[in-house]
């Protein structure tokens, strides 16, 4: 924004000087913002590059998931919620393009502007932004939302709120946030907060709400019907306020999105085969090749689609809770990783076709490189060399077995590690410490996870060769959610999806505050100054090169921390679906990611 100023004196000159000192004179309103550089799309873009802007409206998609739900509020710690609600019903000031690592474009906000060093951010609402009940979205709604989520919402919202020094209305439709720390990502993080309707919560305790409140939000879908623990049906809002925006054109094409819930994977797959569901993701490549031959597929009514992506593998496996003995000792964790016979399990369950996760950010440019740390990565890790575990600086790879059931070599290494940690096998074949206490622990699983349970059964047998007794405890979804929220487990199944734009959420995943604070993603209870330093480097990186180096350094710390026994990654997605459900040929770099299905899909007869 170009402005001309005339030379004047007195109090007016002092006022202008104050404006200049705050950076206000240099701010420029933009239609989008990127972590580094400029967003790829110009202000007048017609649609996101991976959508069909002319997609027809109509039809329905019915998908399934294992588990249950007892809440419709995805923004609090209490309860279990259909995860899709957070993305299909609610909207934020800015919206993502899943074809860019981290660029945002105006959604509820028509513009965004920041200070020269991103020490503040200002959003201006669109004049036409509306809630599903037709009422305007106001600055008051925005400010109430940010304070409520930051203080009474889910812990994932608290970290960024604590970095806000002031929040104030600066115009009829504008709100400005000023930060108390240097963090380039904060303007983008705040741009992605869901916006709630203040008036809906006037006489309701936000943090305790569940199924008693049907959300009023701004998204293209509204909750139409539900039955607790059974299904949720979303209906496309024909009066959706944002349907003509470039960021929304070609999005939300289906009239109904229905989510069915099942007790286990088998019941869900049978429902799909029977036509009760019309789309199903498959995570087992052997099953994809051998069991997707039922009549509907043979007739061409159901087709199989393979979707590639370029995002990180994330971490999927079995997490060890270091808040509890004996998992505090890295040598014990290393032994349990050696005892996990991935090659045998992969052959038994997936005909050897699954790729294993090699690090938290593997399968992407952000993943740690093979061999010793070099260059900027080594420079970043150097000050923490005394804290880092073996392999962080010199190189680390997961143990590989010979594929036989006995896994003899790795079991031998595991016994050596356990002995170093003070655990030895007695005359009865039981592993005990110096005090004579046996090595026993529980593995917590959620009901319905048949394939995960099968993996654990094989693993438990392997642990017996070490003299370890592992007891499997299975609970329903509600109990499982409650226990994991307060870290009441020894070991459990763990999955954390990671993006090409890691940032503030990494503190929620791996920050030391999560050791005691319930509801974070730090299920392993890690407390690593080195990891937190790398997260700070990610947040303050002035260039993409520094950002990549800091993420690769963090990846080394996480992987060599030996907190999780990694299992399979999915470099592709397998989706079987009704032939009338279509998606564009152009696939974004994130592939089958958050809401790609159903966001860009449409239903077409013929």
Describe the fold and architecture:
The protein has 18 helices and 25 strands. It is an alpha+beta fold and 606 residues long. It starts with 10 loop residues before the first helix and ends with a strand. The strands form eight sheets. The protein has a five-stranded mixed sheet with strand order 19-18-20-14-21. Strands 2-11-10-9 form a four-stranded mixed sheet.
Task: Outline the secondary-structure elements.
Elements: H1 11-22, E1 32-34, E2 60-66, H2 85-88, E3 94-96, E4 103-106, E5 109-114, E6 120-125, H3 139-152, H4 158-161, E7 164-171, E8 174-179, H5 186-191, E9 221-227, E10 231-236, E11 256-262, H6 265-273, E12 279-282, H7 285-290, H8 295-298, E13 302-308, E14 315-320, H9 330-339, H10 342-350, E15 355-356, H11 375-381, H12 408-420, E16 424-425, E17 431-432, E18 440-446, H13 450-464, E19 469-475, H14 477-485, E20 491-496, H15 505-510, H16 529-540, H17 544-560, E21 564-566, E22 568-569, E23 572-578, E24 581-582, H18 596-599, E25 602-603
Parallel strand pairs: 2-11, 18-19, 18-20
Antiparallel strand pairs: 1-4, 3-4, 5-6, 6-8, 7-8, 9-10, 10-11, 12-23, 13-23, 14-20, 14-21, 15-22, 16-17, 24-25
Tags for this entry?
single chain, 606 residues
Number of helices, where a helix is a run of at least 4 consecutive DSSP H or I residues: 18
* Strand tally: 25
Taken from the alpha-carbon principal axes, the silhouette is globular
Mean pLDDT: 92
Helix/strand-derived category reads: alpha+beta
């Amino acid at each position: 924004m170009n402005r001309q100023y005339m030379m004047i004196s007195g109090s007016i000159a002092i006022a202008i000087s104050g404006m200049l000192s705050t950076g206000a004179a240099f701010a420029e309103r933009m239609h989008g913002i990127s972590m580094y550089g400029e967003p790829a799309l110009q202000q007048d873009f017609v649609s996101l590059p991976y959508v069909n802007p002319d997609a027809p409206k109509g039809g329905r998609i019915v998908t399934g998931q294992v588990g249950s739900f007892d809440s419709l509020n995805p923004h609090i710690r209490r309860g279990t919620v259909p995860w899709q609600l957070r993305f299909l019903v609610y909207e934020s000031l800015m919206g993502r393009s899943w074809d860019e690592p981290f660029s945002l474009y105006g959604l509820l906000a028509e513009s965004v502007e920041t200070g020269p060093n991103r020490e503040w951010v200002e959003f201006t609402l669109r004049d036409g932004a509306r809630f599903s009940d037709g009422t305007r979205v106001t600055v008051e709604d925005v400010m109430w939302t940010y304070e409520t989520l930051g203080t009474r919402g889910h812990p994932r919202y608290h970290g960024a709120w604590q970095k806000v020094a002031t929040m104030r209305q600066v115009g009829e439709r504008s709100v400005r946030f000023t930060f108390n720390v240097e963090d380039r990502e904060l303007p983008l993080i705040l741009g992605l907060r869901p916006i709630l309707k203040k008036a809906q919560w006037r006489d309701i305790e936000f943090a305790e709400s569940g199924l008693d409140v049907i959300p009023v939000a701004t998204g293209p879908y509204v909750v139409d019907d539900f039955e607790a623990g059974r299904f949720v049906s979303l209906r496309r809002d024909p009066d959706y306020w944002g349907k003509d925006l470039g960021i929304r054109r070609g999005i939300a094409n289906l009239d109904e999105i229905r989510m069915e819930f099942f007790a286990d994977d088998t019941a869900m797959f049978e429902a799909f085969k029977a036509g009760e569901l019309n789309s199903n993701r498959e995570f087992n490549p052997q099953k994809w090749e051998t069991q997707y031959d039922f009549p509907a597929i043979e007739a061409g009514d159901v087709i199989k689609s393979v979707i590639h992506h370029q995002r990180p593998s994330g971490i999927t496996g079995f997490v060890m809770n270091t808040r509890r003995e004996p998992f505090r000792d890295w040598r014990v964790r290393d032994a349990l990783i050696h005892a996990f016979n991935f090659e045998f399990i992969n052959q038994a369950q997936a005909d050897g076709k699954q790729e294993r996760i090699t690090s938290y950010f593997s399968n992407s440019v952000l993943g740690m490189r093979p061999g010793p740390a070099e260059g900027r990565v080594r420079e970043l890790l150097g000050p923490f060399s005394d804290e880092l575990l073996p392999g962080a600086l010199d190189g680390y790879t997961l143990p590989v077995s010979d594929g036989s059931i006995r896994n003899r070599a790795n079991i031998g290494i595991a016994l050596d590690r356990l002995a170093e940690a003070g655990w030895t096998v007695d005359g009865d074949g039981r592993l005990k410490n110096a005090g004579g206490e046996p090595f026993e622990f529980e593995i917590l699983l959620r009901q319905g996870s048949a394939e995960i349970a099968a993996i654990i059964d094989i693993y438990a047998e392997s642990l017996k060769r070490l003299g370890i007794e592992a007891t499997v405890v299975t609970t329903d979804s509600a109990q499982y959610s409650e226990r994991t929220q307060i870290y009441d487990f020894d070991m459990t199944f763990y999955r954390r999806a990671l993006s090409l734009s890691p940032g503030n959420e990494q503190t929620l995943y791996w920050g030391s505050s999560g050791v005691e604070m319930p509801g974070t993603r730090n299920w392993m209870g890690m407390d690593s100054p080195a990891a937190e330093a790398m997260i700070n480097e990610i947040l303050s990186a002035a260039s993409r090169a520094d950002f990549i180096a800091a993420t690769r350094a963090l990846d080394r710390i996480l992987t060599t921390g030996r907190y999780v026994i990694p299992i399979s990654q999915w470099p592709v997605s397998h989706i079987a679906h009704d032939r009338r459900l279509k998606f564009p040929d152009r696939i974004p770099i994130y592939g089958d990611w958050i809401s790609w299905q159903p966001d860009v899909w449409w239903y077409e007869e013929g």
